[in-house]
Write a structure and sequence with these properties.
The chain is of the alpha/beta class. The chain has a single domain, classed as Metallo-beta-lactamase, Chain A (4-Layer Sandwich). It is about 30% helix and about 20% strand. Strand 7 and strand 8 form a beta hairpin. It is globular. About 40% of the residues are buried.
Length: about 325
């Protein structure tokens, strides 16, 4: 064999190995992008929802992610939403049934209905699971253990609650939950309406990518940690975009339901580099948020250098 042919064979082999490693790398799949009530929203007959009631293809599940490790055939669910039944089936379809139907663990940000009430399906009335790990910050852990019906899941071993330590950005690395294969998950504590639990935002680190997931927060300025600096430290930042601007709920005072407006987040990042802006992936859309259906608004976000999460996408 000539040296030239040998050289070509080596290049092809290296390319094949690189592609194989990339395909086998841990990644995120978006299983839902909507706010707690989903899209369309219960009782909504406005234009934003009316078309969606008639067309199932336009519907969007409540915000949720899957963290997938193809090498070990493991996966973890982020948020147990009211749509969990559909989302687990959706994950099965997206991954061609290559994984167990139930996740190897569930990470939950906080005790608002769109983020934890799907746990009910793990009880004896439905799946009757056995010791599915549920990872939370301490106050939510205690809440699940001491309040029905969630405490029944703990008492009869449908789930096992696993407490997480609060992660301080750039420090406190012993706060990691290690999932094997170089995958670690950290829990920030972020300011939000904490009636029953504190609120977490998750940092997911894999050997090839780092992700941020903060679906709910009051305002960026209220968080003692800089969202800009945290975003720079990851590859993808999936962040709260409940409302696009003040026009989303004209009849309500948004001070009573505080979230960073999409326009506020874009303003905050406007002087950052194109690389930093591109990391921002907006998620957790209220049914009134035009990013769910308005191509003009979607283009505005993209033209400004940002991204928005799409249900079913692999990141």
């Amino acid at each position: 064999m000539s040296k030239k042919i040998t050289h070509i064979c080596i290049i092809l082999l290296l390319t094949f190995n690189a592609s194989a490693q990339k395909a086998d790398a841990p990644h995120i799949i978006v299983l839902g992008v909507a706010q707690d009530g989903g899209y369309p929203h219960m009782g909504c007959s406005r234009q934003c929802c009316s078309r969606t009631w008639k067309n199932e293809g336009l519907r969007r599940y409540v915000v949720s992610l899957a963290l997938v490790n193809p090498a070990t055939k493991q996966w973890w669910l982020f948020e147990a939403t009211p749509d969990i039944k559909e989302q687990l089936q959706y994950f099965k379809q997206l991954t061609n049934g290559d994984y167990n139907f139930l996740p190897d663990g569930i990470f939950i940000t906080h005790a608002h209905m769109g983020h934890y009430t799907g746990l009910m399906h793990l009880g004896k009335e439905v799946m009757s699971t056995h010791e599915v790990p549920v990872y939370t910050l301490p106050k939510l852990k205690k809440y699940l253990e001491t309040n029905g019906p969630w405490s029944q899941l703990v008492n009869i071993h449908n789930i096992v609650t696993v407490g997480m330590m609060e992660y301080k950005h750039g420090d406190n690395n012993d706060a990691a939950v290690t999932l094997g294969s170089g995958i670690n998950v950290f829990a920030y504590r972020v300011p939000h309406r904490d009636e029953y639990s504190e609120t977490a935002g998750f940092r997911i680190e894999t050997p090839n990518k780092k992700y941020l997931f903060i679906p709910d927060i009051n305002k960026w300025a209220l968080w003692k940690t800089s969202i800009i600096e945290v975003t720079k430290s990851v590859d993808v930042a999936l962040v709260d975009a409940t409302f696009y601007d003040q026009n989303d709920l004209p009849a309500r005072n948004l001070a009573n339901v505080p979230h960073p407006l999409v326009t506020e987040t874009m303003k905050l990042f406007e002087k950052e580099t194109a690389e930093t802006k591109a990391k921002v992936r907006l998620i957790h859309f209220n049914h009134t948020n035009p990013l769910l259906w308005d191509k003009t608004k979607q283009k505005t976000v993209k033209d400004a250098g940002f991204n928005y999460a799409k249900q079913g996408e692999k990141i």
